[in-house]
Structure prediction request, 121 residues.
Amino acid sequence: MKFLLLVHHNETRFAAMSDTVKRDLLAESVRLTHELHANTQYLDASPLKPSATGARVRVRDGKASITDGPFTETHEHIAGYFMVEASSLQQAIEIATRIPGARLGYVEVRQVLEIDGLPVN
Prediction:
């Protein structure tokens, strides 16, 4: 089963961290991806640019409405993701506990609904 692990944390607090701490967190995440890859569980992972750099797109009655970020009234934003292969929700949760971002905020664990007919990478 595929799971999307969405990493949420406070962008303001993250931005205030030293470059050394940020590099260490990234290096730890990269090591985790290599461990997952060795166990054939890694599918994809990446940090995301800050929410202020994105856009929200809505279409109502055929008309598009675009809003610049940030998008939520929360202090925690989606900071990145891991896409993993896991045998169960419990195994995906165990992987989520190893993501450095879980120490800064939280990791949302969601099973991916696989649909026939979609292109495969």
